[in-house]
Amino acid sequence: MRIFITGASGHIGSAVIPELLDAGHQVVGLARSNESAATVAAAGAEVRRGDLDDLDNLRDAVAAADGVIHLAFKHEAMRAGDFAAAITADLRAIETIGAALAGTGKPFVGTSGTLTLAFAGLTRVSTEADAPDVGPRVDAEKAVAALADRGVRSAVVRLPPTVHSSLDRHGFIPTLIATARDKGVAAYVGDGNNRWPAGHTLDAAQLYRLALEKAPAGARLHAVDDEGVPFREIAEAIGRHLDVPVISIPPEQADAHFGYLGSLVSLDNPTSSARTRELLTWKPTHPGLIADLDQGHYFNAP
Ligand SMILES: NC(=O)c1ccc[n+]([C@@H]2O[C@H](COP(=O)([O-])OP(=O)(O)OC[C@H]3O[C@@H](n4cnc5c(N)ncnc54)[C@H](OP(=O)(O)O)[C@@H]3O)[C@@H](O)[C@H]2O)c1
C-alpha cells in the first residue's frame, strides 16, 4: 500500500517508516521544514512538504494514498501551555483526513494517549473497551472511531505516556531526566506508587503497521507493554543513573518542580493491552521501561 504519514519526522514516525518499508509498503511523509524533510528522506520515505494547518495540501495527500497514519501533534504549543491549540489543530486534521477517506474503505490509524483514561478518573486497570466521554484527546478519539460509520477502516492507537527507546529525544522520559539534572534530585509525588504504563518505540511502530493492515473498523488499541510502572521506580532509575538523591515531594509542589508535566506525574494509569495483543497477534519483544533506562542510552546526552 501507499501510506501517507503525518508526523513522519518525529520520534514514533521515524520508527514507523522503516517498519512499513520493511513490510513492502510505500511511504509518503509530511514534512514542514527542510530539516524534517531531510529526516523523512533519510528514513527512505517520499517527502510531502506542508504544514498540518494546510488542509488543502493534507486533503490532496490523503486522496493520493491507500491508507493514512496520523502522528503529527503540535507539541510546541502543548509545552508552551496552549494545549487547546494543539487539540484544535489535531481535530481539524482528523476531520480533513476523514472527509478525504470517507466511503473508500481505506485504513486510517489515529493517535491518542492512555493518560486520557486516567484523566477520566478510572481507578482500575483500563482496557481498550473504555471510551470516556470527556478528557484530553477524547474528541479526537471519537472523531477517528466515528469514521468507521462513514466507510473508513479507522482505528485509534493509544500510546502510553512513556514510549521509550534510544529514538526518544524529547518525550516525557528525557524531560524527567532534564528536570532531575536541573534540580539535582529525582522526584516522585507522595508515595510514588501511582503507575505509568510504558511501551518500546519499535513495538509501538509494529502495532501501527498491524493496525493499518488489519485492525477492524472503529478499534481502540493499546501500545502498552508494561501495564504500570510505579512512578517511584522511574525516579529511582533516573536517580541511580544521574547519581542524584531520590526524594518524595508533596502534590502542591508538583507544578513548580515538574513544569508542564506537573499535572501528570501523580496520575495512576494502569493499562491493559490484552485485547490489542489478541486482536492483532501483537507481541512486544523489546525491553521494558526500567530495563531500557538501565541500558544507559538516555543518560549519555550532556
Ligand atoms: N512519544 C510518546 O511517549 C507519546 C505518548 C503519548 C502520545 N504520543 C502521541 O504520539 C504522536 C507522535 O508523537 P512523537 O513522540 O512521535 O512526537 P514528536 O517526536 O514530537 O513528533 C511530532 C511530529 O509532528 C510534527 N508536527 C508538529 N507540528 C506540526 C505542524 N504544524 N505541521 C506538520 N507537522 C507537525 C513534527 O514535525 P517536525 O519534525 O517538523 O517538528 C513531528 O514530525 C503525537 O500525537 C503524540 O502526542 C506520544
Notable traits:
single chain, 302 residues, alpha/beta, Rossmann fold, UDP-galactose 4-epimerase, domain 1, 2 domains, seven-stranded parallel β-sheet, three-stranded mixed β-sheet, binds NADP nicotinamide-adenine-dinucleotide phosphate
Give your account of this protein's structure.
α1 links the parallel β1 and β2. The protein is of the alpha/beta class. α1 packs across α9 and α5 runs parallel beside α7. The chain folds into two domains: about 190 residues, NAD(P)-binding Rossmann-like Domain (Rossmann fold); about 80 residues, Alpha-Beta Complex (UDP-galactose 4-epimerase, domain 1). The protein contains 13 helices and twelve strands. About 40% of the residues lie in helices and about 20% in strands. The longest helix has 19 residues. It is globular. The strands form three sheets. Strands 3-2-1-4-5-6-10 form a seven-stranded parallel sheet, with helices on both faces. The mean pLDDT is about 95. The protein binds NADP nicotinamide-adenine-dinucleotide phosphate.
